[in-house]
Design goal:
There is one protein chain. Strands 6-7-8-3-9-10 form a six-stranded mixed beta sheet, with helices on both faces. Strands 2-1-4-5 form a four-stranded antiparallel beta sheet. The relative contact order is 0.20. Helix 3 packs parallel to helix 5 and helix 5 runs parallel beside helix 6. The protein has 246 residues and is α/β, with parallel strands linked by helices.
């Protein structure tokens, strides 16, 4: 990480874009629409909060934007390139190099230490050991966990585990991080600390964040706020930005 924040909000081609994206499922003879004709674009440096109740299509949207799943119709573009014709291997490479993911349940590997969990994506990229050690140490320091590097997930609090998950999502230097309900398993104070961390990383390193949540309190961190309802996205005005805690 180390992008110059002066370039965070240059308007240009979207890094991530959904065009006419629809996702349906068959339930018996009935076709159920999880998403319907979604249009969405995220630019470098955006901090987007997508708010909606359970069942509104938030997780489906995130799975499509992270190319974990494919739309029934429409297309998702990454850096201006269509993903519809890409193979599963090509999509996996995109996720490994361009996209960071943060999950509600942390998804840490229980037998690995905090440092080893953060290091894991670099192992998948076959980065040299010296580079891995340097980058992991710097990232754990960035999220305030350098003193807890050797602890396993069951020795960490919920907030600390989410910080490890955020560090892991950022360790490969992705252009965008997609977070699914990142505060859902945290108390309100710890959730605030996690959101403050995300906003600071967004502002200091120009990483784009898309956060989906059912928690209205998270919306105050938004630079852009989007409401999702019955599988449709509606962009909303944002009166003011929350500043990350110093």
């Amino acid at each position: 990480m180390g992008s110059d924040s002066r370039f965070c909000h240059v308007r240009g081609r979207p890094f991530l874009e959904a065009r006419d994206v629809t996702k349906t499922y068959q339930v018996g003879a009935e076709t159920v629409y999880a998403l319907r004709d979604v249009q969405f674009a995220a630019l470098q440096g955006d901090f987007v909060v997508i708010n909606g109740p359970s069942g509104s299509g938030k997780t489906t949207f995130l799975n499509l934007m992270s190319v974990i799943d494919r739309p029934t119709s429409g297309d998702v573009f990454i850096e201006g390139q269509s993903t519809s014709a890409k193979s599963e291997g090509q999509l996996a490479l995109l996720r490994k190099t361009k996209i960071g993911l943060v999950f509600q349940s942390f998804n840490l590997i229980p037998v690995l230490s905090a440092a080893e969990n953060v290091e894991y994506p670099l192992l998948l990229q076959k980065r040299p050991p010296a580079e891995r050690r340097t980058r992991v140490a710097a990232m754990l320091s960035e999220v305030g966990l350098d003193a807890l590097a050797r602890r396993r997930p069951n020795e960490l609090s919920g907030g600390q585990r989410q910080r490890v998950a955020i560090a892991r999502a950022l360790i490969t230097g992705p252009m965008i991080v997609l977070a699914d309900e990142p505060t859902a398993n945290l108390d309100s104070k710890t959730g605030e600390a996690v959101m403050d961390l995300m906003r600071r990383l967004n502002e200091e390193h120009c990483v784009t964040f898309i956060v989906v949540t059912h928690d209205p309190a998270v919306s105050r961190y938004a630079q852009r706020r989007v409401r999702i309802h019955d599988g449709q996205l509606i962009e909303e005005d944002v009166g003011g930005l929350a500043s990350p805690a110093s």
